[in-house]
UniProtKB/TrEMBL annotation:
Keywords: Membrane, Phosphate transport, Transmembrane, Transmembrane helix, Transport
Name this polypeptide is given: Phosphate ABC transporter substrate-binding protein, PhoT family
GO CC annotation terms, alphabetical: ATP-binding cassette (ABC) transporter complex
Domain of life of the organism encoding this protein: Bacteria
Any one GO biological process: phosphate ion transmembrane transport
Protein source organism: Arthrobacter woluwensis
Family, per entry: Belongs to the PstS family.
Low complexity biased stretches: 469-491
Listed InterPro entries: ABC_phos-bd_PstS (IPR005673), PBP_domain (IPR024370), Phosphate-bind_PstS (IPR050962)
Record's keyword annotation contains Ubl conjugation: no
């Protein structure tokens, strides 16, 4: 049998052209369907700072990789982050406290010699994870007044069966064991916020602690916990360090952001609030508390958008978690050193994502999303970053304009509903009341939303602080000061007892397991506690560790990034299927041609 070499060459040419055509189609599809944000390649940037906010920031770092951006973040502690940022060693920092002012750390000695901006990036609650065996089992219903907490963390209460603990946990066989108090060893924003709370709420306890240890410069709040020399105190490094130590060591209690206890599947203390109810730092409890945060709205101040939490500690809404706060990103407002326009473009993109899409997962992670008015204020700060690219600038403007006009919610931020004022946090409207808070207790607060921040979009004449709620506490009186008798626990749950929806009474709700977010038929985002009831019923993907990820996020319609990626994946699959037989045919044809020519 003979073969025509010319015909073989023609065959090989056709095969080659087909393969090249497929590759061309794939390349065109990649460029056509993948949005510019995904196709863009940003300069690698790095930051350091708060481990309190570490789980949130690292979630955004993971998310942003799909947009062609690499961000490194070291949760080394707020003090280290502030110092490295000031020295130009990192491109951004994350901290709960500013460089200057009455809430700053007096031990800070290095300050930025360049223009910079502070912008809030998330909210959360400092929780008290504990490891307490009772009758051979892990106890998970511990209730503590703020007074008892202050006594524990100043060394005044040292045993688990102390009357200060027993009175709010009646009927519990608390062990006669020493309390092992776990604190942060490095400078941290969590410590700064916690010691500030003690200084303002329990000044005599804090002064005694400072006098005993000598660890409080000028008697002020500090990023370095003043626990030196106290026998039952143990210092561990970072949020992960205190969490791991507590999880592995019986009779311990620590302080840190709720996200860490949630991730470790350990309980946190239910803390008594000013209304006498015991709560944990859910996204809604934090949102309600922070309606009383006073935000610095002086745009000329270096502490613009910083927080004063004095009124948060004493807010008497029964749903409040008192130790709630915002965390901040520090970003350059000018080029300096190695921070050039290309890094500015990358940082602007990262900060923009964190403030927008990044807020969707905060509740599920153990934080609370930023209210939309603060998102808008923070976005204006992002626009000061040098080198901000036009695409990021357009996204920022589009989001601000949509929220300001109340025409849309491009970020799907669960705190905001189109048609509503940006100063109204939807999580406050939907926040459940604690067990034991009856109709009379709920009446002064139900449907109320106390404003606090006159950011972009605020109505003329609004000022920070907002209106006051009812002056009288609506629950059992909470004794929070030194020597007070304490509050009586109300019920067994830190949140309202809500009946699980049945087929007969369940409204139409759609849930996204990937974000932990649920929306009702009207597009309202449900609070995390309410959403959990529906998430338990949402269909799961099969296989170990599988997650059901919707193709379009709630609130989005039309062709999206997920569909684009599916098209590209399908084309890759087509190439994988067609290339081997075509290549084999090409090779066989070549071999036959060579055999004929020889």
């Amino acid at each position: 049998m003979t073969h025509d070499p010319q015909k073989n060459r023609r065959t090989r040419g056709r095969v080659t052209r087909r393969i090249l055509a497929l590759l061309t189609v794939l390349a065109l599809a990649s460029g056509t369907f993948i949005p510019a944000a995904l196709a863009a390649s940003y300069t690698r940037i790095g930051g350091s700072g708060s481990s309190w906010a570490g789980n949130a920031v690292n979630q955004w770092v993971t998310d942003i990789r799909s947009q062609g951006s690499t961000v490194d973040y070291n949760p080394s502690g707020s003090s280290t982050g502030r110092k490295e940022f000031a020295n130009g060693l990192v491109d951004f920092a994350v901290s709960e406290i500013p460089y200057k002012g009455d809430t700053a750390d007096p031990q800070d000695t290095v300050f930025p010699g360049f223009k910079y901006s502070m912008l809030p990036i998330a909210a959360g609650g400092t929780s008290f994870m504990y490891n307490l065996p009772v009758n051979g089992k892990r106890f998970s219903e511990l209730k503590l007044t703020q007074d008892a907490l202050a006594r524990i963390f100043t060394g005044k209460v040292t045993r688990w069966n102390d009357p200060a603990i027993a009175k709010t946990n009646p009927g519990v066989n608390l062990p006669n064991q020493q309390i092992r108090v776990v604190v942060r060893s490095e400078g941290s924003g969590a410590t700064a916020q916690f010691t500030l709370w003690m200084k303002r709420q329990f000044p005599s306890y804090y002064a005694e602690l400072c006098g005993k240890t000598g660890g409080c410069p000028n008697g002020g709040a500090t990023s370095y916990f003043p626990g030196q020399g106290i026998a039952n105190f143990s210092a561990q490094n970072g949020s992960s360090g205190v969490t791991t130590y507590t999880a592995n060591t019986p009779y311990t209690i620590n302080y840190d952001e709720y996200s860490y206890a949630l991730g470790a599947n350990f309980p946190v203390a239910q803390v008594g609030n000013a209304a006498g109810f015991f709560t944990i730092p859910t996204d809604t409890a934090v949102a309600v508390a922070l309606t009383k945060a006073k935000i610095n709205m002086d745009a000329s101040s270096p502490n613009y958008l910083s927080q004063d939490l004095s009124a948060v500690y004493t807010h008497n809404d029964p749903r409040v978690y008192a130790l709630s706060a915002y965390t901040y990103m520090l970003v350059p407002a000018q080029t300096r050193g190695s921070f050039d326009n290309s890094k500015g473009a990358a940082l602007g993109n990262f900060a923009s994502y964190s403030l927008c899409e990044g807020q969707q997962t905060m509740g599920a992670l153990g934080y609370s999303p930023l209210p939309m008015n603060l998102v808008m204020s923070a976005m204006q700060q992002v626009k000061k970053i040098p080198g901000l690219d036009s695409d990021t600038g357009k996204r920022l403007d589009s989001t601000i304009n949509a929220a300001q006009s109340s025409s849309g919610n491009p970020c799907n931020n669960p705190t905001f509903k189109p048609g509503q004022d940006v100063n109204n946090n939807q999580l406050v409207y939907t926040a459940p009341f604690p067990s034991g808070c009856d109709a009379a207790c709920q009446a002064p607060w139900r449907g109320k939303n106390v404003g606090y921040n006159a950011g972009p979009g605020a109505k003329p004449g609004q000022v920070a602080g907002g209106s006051e709620g009812p002056a009288a506490a609506q629950g059992p009186a909470a004794a929070q000061g030194p020597g007070a008798s304490g509050a009586v626990p109300q019920g067994n749950s830190p949140a309202a007892t809500t009946k699980r929806p049945t087929a007969a009474n369940k409204p139409s709700v759609s849930c996204n397991r990937a974000t932990g977010q649920c929306t009702d038929a009207k597009g309202n985002v449900l609070a995390a506690e309410q959403a959990q009831q529906y998430l338990n019923d949402a269909p799961e993907a099969s296989g170990p560790g599988a997650k059901a990820v919707p193709l379009v996020l709630a609130g989005n319609t039309g062709w999206g990034t997920s569909q684009n990626l599916l098209v590209v994946a399908a084309l890759f699959l087509l190439l994988l299927v067609l290339t081997p037989p075509l290549a084999a045919r090409y090779i066989r044809s070549g071999r036959r041609g060579k055999g004929t020519d020889s």
